[in-house]
Amino acid sequence: MGLFGGRKTVFVDADILVIGGGMAGCGATYESRYWGRDLKIVCVEKANIERSGAVAQGLYAINCYMGMQWGENRPEDHVRYARNDLMGLVREDLGYDIARHVDSTVHKFEEWGLPIMRDPKTGRYQREGKWQIMIHGESYKPIVAEAARKAATRVYNRIMVTHLLMDSSRKNRVAGAVGFNVRTGDFHVFRAKAVIVSAGGASHIFKPRSVGEGMGRTWYAPWSSASAYGLPIMVGAKMTQMENRIVLTRFKDGYGPVGAYFLHLKTYTQNGYGEEYEKRWYEDTKALVGDYIDRHPVPTCLRNHAILKEVAAGRGPIRMVTKEAF
Amino acid sequence: MPTFVYMTRCDGCGHCVDICPSDIMHIDKTYRRAYNIEPNMCWECYSCVKACPQNAIDVRGYADFAPLGHSVRVLREEKKGTVSWRLKFRDGREKSFVSPVRTTPWGSIKGPAEYDAPRPEDFARQELAHEPDALNTNQPLPALRPDQLKLGLG
Fold first, then answer.
1. Can you tell me the ipTM of this complex?
2. Which of A135, A167, A235, A239 is the most buried (most CB within 10 A)?
3. Which of B45, B131, B154 is the closest to A80 by Cβ?
C-alpha cells in the first residue's frame, strides 16, 4: 500500500481559486470577495494560513508605504527609486500600480488592528527609511489571515498545489489546479473559473555559505519552494521581471535583512583590513555602468559588485561594523 | 538553532503540528510527543513555541554566536494583545521586552462582504476595494500617463 496507498481523490469546484495563502493570497481572497459577493472563493495553502508564507513569524516594518496622505512620496517617486536600483530593468507600470495601491492597504491593516508606530511630534507613521514604516508586527499574519477567512468561502490548509490544469475546450486558459494534502496524501482537484497564483518565491537556490549549525539559516522563509514561478512556467505562462533576482548580501551571524542594520542601526562595512572599500571601485564600476553609480541610493547590485571585487582582490572578508551601533 | 521539545512537558496535543509553517513539527508515533523532524528547514519563527499550551518547546541559539547557557522565552497573550520576551544571558543578565500585537479585539475585522456592494460602473474603474476613500487623500486614485514612463535616470 505504501504511504499514500489509502488516499482519496477530492474534487472541489469554485468560481475563484486562490493558490497560496500568504500575504498576497489573503489579499487576493479579500479583494475577490469585495468584488464578487456571490462567488465561491477558495483559498488553498500548503501550511496553515494563520501562520504561513514569508510573514509567518511577523515583521517589524512595512517596507513600502508612500505616505500620499501627508505628501511624503508619490507612486512615481517609487518607480524612479526602483528604476535606479534595478538599473532600468523594471516594469514601471507594475511598480507604479503596486505603489499607488499600497497606502490604502496599509490603512486597512491599521483599521484591522495592526499596531503601527507614529511619530509623536508629527502624528505621522514613524519612518525608519524613505519607504519604510515601523510596526509592532508579531501578529501581522494572523490579523491578515482573519480578514481572509472572513472573505473566503473555504480555506483549505495543508494542501500543496503542484500543477495548474488547462481548460480542455478553450485554448491557453487555466481551469484549475491539482495538489495533495501533505498529511493524508489525499489528492485534490480544484476546478475554477479563475485562478490566482499567489504562491511563494524561492529560497535555498544557492548553497548556503554558513556551515554546520548555520546550514539552514536563511533570511527568507526556508519553505518557499518557488511555486510562484513553477506553476505558471509549466503551463507556458509569460513571465515578467525574471531578469531581476534579488541577491542580498549576508554577513556572518547576521542573517536578517541587512537593510535594517544599515538603515536603523547605522552600521557600515569594511574590508578585512578595516578600510572603506566601496569608493575604491567607483571608477571601475562607472566604466561598466555609467551614471547609475552616481545615483542615490547607490543601486544594491553595484554595492554587492564592490564587495565581490574587493574579495576577489584578496582584501576580504567584508565585515559589517556593528560595535558602534550596538 | 531549531526548535526542540521538552519531552516531560509535552502532552502530545498537536498545536505545534497544526501551526508549523514548515510542517516539520510532528508527533512521534511511539512516544506520543512532538519533535522537530527536519531541523534544517526550521526558520525559528517561534510559531510553535507561542502556540504550545504547555510551554514545552524551546529554541536554542546557534552555538557559534550564542553560547550555551542562555535562554529566550516568549509569551503571547492574545486577549491582552501583547507578546513578551525574556532573554537570559549566560552571565545571568536578563532583558525583558513587551510589545503590542493587536489594537483591536480578535475576530473584530469587518469582512469585505459587510461593506456596500460595488456599483456596476465600479467594475470598469481601476480602484481596488475601499479606494479611493481608504487612501485618505481626498483625491482620486493616481493614474499613470504614458509620458511618465521610461524617463531614464532620475
1. 0.94
2. A135
3. B154
